[in-house]
Amino acid sequence: LDFAGRTAFVTGGANGIGLGLVRALLAQGCKVAIADIREDALAAAVKTLDNQSVMAVQLDVASREGFAQAADEAEAALGPVSLVFNNAGINLFQTIDESSYDDWDWVMGVNLHGVINGVMTFAPRMKALGQGGHIVNTASMASFLCGGAPGIYNTTKFAVRGMSESLRYSLSPHGIGVSVLCPGLVKSHIYASDEVRPSVLSGGAKPVDSAAVGRLEQLHQFGMDPDVIAARTLEAVQENRFHIFPHPEFRDELATVFDEILADFRDYPQDAGFEQRTGFEKMR
Ligand code: NAI
Predict the structure, then answer these.
(1) Where are the domains of the chain?
(2) Could you read off the pLDDT of 64-120 as tens digits, one per residue?
(3) Catalytic entry in 101, 153, 169, 268
(4) Does domain 7-265 have CATH number 3.40.50.720?
């Protein structure tokens, strides 16, 4: 895949991983639309980038109509989009049993429906354009590894991974690649997610624990540099790899998880139909 001259659309591009992706795409000669809910961060990002090939569009990815409008705006200014990075995401560090329906609606709305909206908006346009391209959905190592605390987050990231894999099979005949980005800890502003929580989805929300947010902020200082994540992501896109694992240190932990899963199988006796029930590749 040739990056130069293509138009990219990056959600959550005003900070963190998204902004790293924007910088890397510009360096590859792409035109880039940065979509983000934070207007001030968008303005600051555009200023620091100081590049004619970039535009900012304010968007809440959870809004279907908003997404289609933002796509129209981006394509009117920069030409048809053939690289999509569904990256915007938030975190809420609390267990499922302590969460409210508003907590669910907020996190599912951004982390899962935001990605769905990106796919539903751009996949038909990319197919009609017929110039191939690539969609990268940002999941997380949390799409494989669960903890008690980020329960809703885990749910959304597992879903993004599954959805991305299915999408990869369906878009491949159109020359459109799909990858799922699964980082570990990254230097970013995700600890401050609560700042962008809509007031209509704040009913039943637990009061923000500023000490816990402070601890998260400190923890994220040890995260990987977004520019490194971005470079590893674009390399994977170039090679059309599905899983993008920028943090090699998780390989052993992942192996343990798969071993635990396999250990739950039992050697039950084979019955009629045994052979026919396997072979998921028939559905690809
Ligand atoms: P970040 O907070 O630095 O950047 C996320 C951006 O998304 C922010 O600019 C924010 O304003 C924007 N955003 C939030 N809600 C939005 C909405 N409704 N519509 C549009 N934009 C919205 O965080 P980071 O870490 O760069 O997050 C990017 C992605 O990476 C997320 O999907 C996150 O779950 C994922 N991730 C982050 C990790 C980390 O350690 N920081 C690890 C693994 C995955």
Answers:
(1) 7-265
(2) 999 999 999 999 999 999 999 999 999 998 899 999 999 999 999 999 999 999 999
(3) 153
(4) yes
